[in-house]
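hey so u asked for the seq, here:
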Amino acid sequence: MKPQVYGVCTLLLLCILPNWNLLTEAKNNYDLLTENFTCSTQDVDSQIIKDLNCGLNKNAKRRTWHLEFTLKKHVKEHDFLMRIVLPRQRPLTDFVLIDLTTDGCQLLANRNQVPLMRLGRNIMDRFSNFPKQCPFRANYSYYIRGFRMDLNLLPAVDMETAVNVEFSYQSKQQGIKWITGYMGARVQRIPEKKSKG
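ran it, structure tokens below
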């Protein structure tokens, strides 16, 4: 390593290490407010999907979303697609935070995944009865219920922004998206409680 590069790295470590505890214990002052959640299917002939419904709860102050589905047949392999976009005002283009396609069975088993996807899978376990490995079974009611993202489980956020999320489960054989979910949300600062006088 060149002496100049070594010196810069040492300086960075000396600046960062004393603040490491402060960084790791930082509390998020933001919340993710879900404004809408819908779902659809490309399986118009009902080859895979038997029943599908989704939506938001009625509590506007603590909004959660749900997704429930039953399959007509076992799904032994599938792809999972996710796209997270932070919309920006024109003339700026929208900022694409994540746009990926991954093997759905590996995601269920929580193997070989992008760290953010692995974290998402761990969080989802609290709200769903999804299997830990393929297949998704036929004639079994799968659900995600009462889901609400706790931003304290993620690295600290320091911005208010709209967030659009789209995710799909896609058949590898037919190439159709048997479930697609669309969520519009907003990262918003949590108002500080007024001090009691």
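The longest strand covers residues 177-189. Residues 1-27 have pLDDT under 50 and may be disordered.
lmk if thats what u needed
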